[in-house]
Design a protein that fits this description.
Layout (H helix, E strand, L loop, with lengths): L1 E2 L5 E2 L14 H14 L4 E4 L4 E7 L7 E7 L7 E5 L2 E10 L4 E3 L5 H12 L3 E8 L4 E6 H10 L4 E3 H7 L1 E2 L10 H10 L4
Parallel strand pairs: 7-9
Antiparallel strand pairs: 1-2, 3-6, 4-5, 6-7, 8-11, 9-10, 10-12
């Protein structure tokens, strides 16, 4: 119970964590990957989206402005790199839903790419943030494909992430420490 100076009382039982409000999953992953690179733990980068530039306004070289561009081809996944001698590849998704992740957010060409990485023994996974719950999960591609093959659902329930996904630890220095999950589950032999 809080007693405010204006004489009003508040009996808020739920404590809300505002520590990461405004931070997107992509921003957190970019900061995490920058940290991994700085401490020489891994080399992982965000893949650029292939764009075809059609028209540029060249008033001057320093103020050149792209006025028309198109996506050249569908991109594969968001991030890739190398860690402990193995190739890593993953897609990142963020949802404000408190109940599920819509499967349509993961495009067919991305799923095909993930299957190819699995065929070549790369480490491939999905990182999903449920912003409503302030939780970020890692799901290995094999588990994702198993879910897709066993259901006709158009979304993946939050409960499935709680059961099959791995909650990624958050701390100030390493925003989305997904390599700690890889250490435990891949190099620790849990999968």
């Amino acid at each position: 119970m809080v007693n405010y100076p204006n004489g009003k009382f508040s009996n808020r039982s739920k404590i809300i964590n505002y520590s990461r409000r405004g931070m997107s999953l992509e921003e957190d992953l970019n900061l995490t990957n920058k940290y991994y690179l700085e401490v020489n733990r891994a080399v992982i980068y965000k893949k650029p989206t292939p764009v075809r530039i059609v028209d540029v306004d060249y008033k001057s070289r320093s103020t050149a402005k792209i006025t028309e561009a198109y996506f050249q081809s569908p991109s594969t996944t968001d991030y890739n790199g190398i860690y402990r001698g193995l190739y890593l590849d993953f897609e990142a998704k963020e949802t404000s839903s408190k109940t599920s992740l819509v499967l349509a957010m993961i495009h067919p060409h991305q799923l095909e790419h993930m299957k190819k990485i699995l065929q070549h023994q790369g480490i491939v996974f999905l990182i999903v943030r449920f912003s409503y719950h302030d939780e970020t999960f890692l799901v290995f591609a094999k588990d994702l494909f198993e879910f897709i093959s066993e259901t006709k659902r158009k979304s993946i329930p939050y409960k499935w992430f709680k059961d099959k996904g791995i909650l990624i630890p958050y701390n100030y220095q390493i925003k989305v420490d997904y390599l700690s999950v890889i250490d435990t589950y891949v190099f620790g032999g849990k999968i």
